[in-house]
Design brief:
Elements (H helix, E strand, L loop, with lengths): L2 H19 L15 H24 L14 H8 L20 H20 L11 E3 L3 E3 L1 H24 L16
Antiparallel strand pairs: 1-2
Helix pairs in contact: 1-4, 1-5, 2-4, 2-5
């Protein structure tokens, strides 16, 4: 199964959890992440929108963020090898959730993210063959396939956090900013 389909399935699981858990998703767990499950999902919806915009730009071959000269990310392959998205990274302000998440807005944003992923998948583009990169603030210059993988891994990470906010208290793993770099 490809990355975009896995992303769509993860976003669908978030929607299902929102329907099943309702108001319980808005309880903040200060000893865990300091966010509620709804805040994790809100953050993820906004970040996915930004990431998929990068994929769309790269597939279309136009956009002011595309850089054909930037060296490829050395950190994204490390993240892929790690196999999961680490906890503990500080969310950029642009995708930091508000204290109170509007459930209707969140539902709209998750649906829009699913639709965007489906539209990209429907192009049939071979993301690994798309030229150019867009720089991620922590991971470096990533190509279209890496952005799709990042979006999927990030979604799975926040789905797991959203589920655990309701049920467990597991220790965090190493944040991206503290991952060893091969550079």
């Amino acid at each position: 199964m490809d990355e975009l389909q896995r992303l769509i399935e993860t976003l669908t699981a978030m929607e299902t959890l929102m329907e099943q858990e309702g108001e319980a998703l808005h309880r903040v767990q200060p000893d865990r992440s300091g966010w509620s499950a709804a805040q994790h999902f809100y953050h993820l919806a906004l970040a996915t929108d930004l990431g998929l915009r990068n994929v769309r730009s790269l597939v279309a071959g136009k956009g002011r963020l595309i850089d054909h000269e930037a060296p490829p990310s050395t950190r994204m392959p490390e993240l892929i090898a790690l196999g999961h998205f680490p906890e503990g990274a500080q969310a950029p302000r642009i995708v930091t959730p508000p204290e109170a998440v509007n459930p209707e807005f969140l539902a709209t944003e998750l649906a829009a993210a699913k639709e965007a992923a489906a539209r990209i998948a429907a192009t049939g583009a071979d993301l690994a063959a798309v030229e150019g990169r867009v720089v991620h603030q922590d991971l470096g210059a990533m190509d279209a396939a890496q952005w799709a993988t990042f979006a999927r891994m990030h979604a799975e990470h926040h789905l797991a956090l959203g589920r655990s906010e309701e049920h467990t208290s597991e220790p965090p793993v190493t944040p991206i900013s503290r991952m060893p770099s091969s550079a």
